[in-house]
Amino acid sequence: MRILVVEDDVNLNRQLVEALQEAGYVVDKAFDGEEGHFLGETEPYDAVILDIGLPEMDGITVLEKWRAASRVMPVLILTARDRWSDKVAGIDAGADDYVTKPFHVEEVLARIRALIRRAAGHASSEIVCGPVRLDTKSSKATVEGVTLKLTSHEYRLLSYLMHHMGEVVSRTELVEHLYDQDFDRDSNTIEVFVGRLRKKLGVDMIETVRGLGYRIQAPAK
């Protein structure tokens, strides 16, 4: 899953980026509204953390421009404690949720997990597909109760497929959502990770749809 953090406070930006990366996300960052708006308009994100008080272009304007351009990724806005009007303006502009500063990073992580789940149509923090269970809270996966030992890339791949189970996901979409904007988009590593993941799952669940991509679904009984 790929997240964009738009926050002008350097320390807070770094804190959020590090926490998200430790939780298994790929993270891009921006420090002003113009850069954030450009990234959000040109790159595919599974969720965005957007500060309201940004230089160059304020967060509300950024969000309004995204929604006007039909950018539908979930957006979590960061607001000041005493500015209730920012919360209202943010929600009206198209925000999906908000967190008030100062906040605990754990709360931000929990809200991001929830936004991504809901956007994919999942209500629970645990996503189940046949014998595979993905715990989005702990970033762990099990097969018939046995914990899988996955690399960060393998986990991201499994998580994205599980969030979109039953859907055909193209290789391009996987690359766009599993790597940051500096990654070599011509790499063939997706195929390598799919092969490794299939071996570790030990069950026939990841289908290659010729010419289209991959799909994960529960094995036929």
TrEMBL record:
Domain Response regulatory: 2-116
UniProt GO molecular function: phosphorelay response regulator activity; transcription cis-regulatory region binding
Gene3D superfamilies named among the record's database cross-references: 3.40.50.2300, 6.10.250.690, Winged helix-like DNA-binding domain superfamily/Winged helix DNA-binding domain
GO annotation, cellular component aspect: cytosol; protein-DNA complex
UniProt keyword annotation of Heme present: no
Residue ranges of DNA binding: 124-218
A Gene Ontology BP annotation from the UniProt entry: regulation of DNA-templated transcription
Keywords for this protein: DNA-binding, Phosphoprotein, Transcription, Transcription regulation, Two-component regulatory system
Annotated positions of the 4-aspartylphosphate modification: 51
Keyword Metal-binding carried by entry: no
Stretches assigned to the OmpR/PhoB-type domain: 124-218
Secretion signal span: none
Pfam family, one: Trans_reg_C
Name of the protein described by the UniProt record: Two component response regulator
